[in-house]
Amino acid sequence: MKTLSANAMVGGLFVGAFVIAACIGSVWTPYDPMAIDMKARLAGPSTQHLLGADEFGRDVLSRLMLGASASGIVSLATVAIATVLGTALGSISGYLGGWTDRVLVAVTNALLAFPGILLALGLLAIFGANKYGIVLALGIAYTPSVARIVRGTVLSLREREFIDASRVSGDTEMYTLLRHILPNCIAPLTVLSTSMFGWTLLSESALSFLGLGVPPPAPTWGNMLAAARPYLAQAAWLAIFPGLCISIVLLGINLLGDALRDRLDPKMRGMQ
């Protein structure tokens, strides 16, 4: 009987706590995250406000919970867009080959020459700095990474015996691709999507920190960090708690990604 690794347990614990906080935060918070209470301005952690209050007297815990929901939705939507587009482009490129492959590889390599966050910044100038714009920008920015992984997997599979058998039996190219090739891409896509969720969460936080993400007063962990900068000396908790949330979730995602890779990658299984 296989046992869960330490990476899987710790990573699953951190990611599970993030998912629970995001789900609860979308329907309930201890206080109204948008309500201003100047009497509680910059109040420290206490029984009334467990993680303190910000410069407008808004409860930090409530805003962190709602921010987890907003950041999670943006990251999940981004991963979904990048996975769908990247899988389509990578499978077409790898399976058809020829000039189609050469053109798509050239475009993919050109996009990969730019860091994802830099490419997203350029795309945000087109789509606009809002929730939908950041999802589209990050989704397109991370599509080339998915396309490259899928293309490599398809290239390694398209000349295998079971693919030749499918063609000989009269199956169409589309059926062969959908029935026999793409299911074998699930394992590497699962590992990549897990890591990409962490990249997206960090990128969304960075863009929100720069004022290019979800616009205030809606909270995200990135814009909470940005708003805390003027108050670091007198209210350090305003930056500490969002920063800890980002760090813990990223650590959990990386640990969970490593555990998934060890479980799904045959080469890694052979080394265990």
Automatic annotation (TrEMBL):
Q: Which UniProt keywords apply?
A: Cell membrane, Membrane, Peptide transport, Protein transport, Transmembrane, Transmembrane helix, Transport
Report the Pfam families cross-referenced here. Answer: BPD_transp_1
> Which portions of this protein are annotated as coiled-coil regions?
none
Q: Which Gene3D superfamilies match?
A: MetI-like (1.10.3720.10)
**A Gene Ontology biological process term:** peptide transport
Instruction: Give the ABC transmembrane type-1 domain ranges.
Output: 68-257
What residues form the membrane-spanning segments?
Answer: 12-31, 73-96, 103-126, 132-150, 181-202, 235-257
Question: What is this entry's stated membrane topology?
Answer: Multi-pass membrane protein
Q: Which GO terms describe its cellular component?
A: plasma membrane
Q: Where in the cell is it found?
A: Cell membrane
Task: List the PANTHER family.
Answer: D,D-DIPEPTIDE TRANSPORT SYSTEM PERMEASE PROTEIN DDPC-RELATED (PTHR43386:SF1), OLIGOPEPTIDE TRANSPORT SYSTEM PERMEASE PROTEIN APPC (PTHR43386)
Give the family per the record.
Answer: Belongs to the binding-protein-dependent transport system permease family.
> Under which name does UniProt file this protein?
ABC transporter permease
State the organism of origin: Ensifer oleiphilus
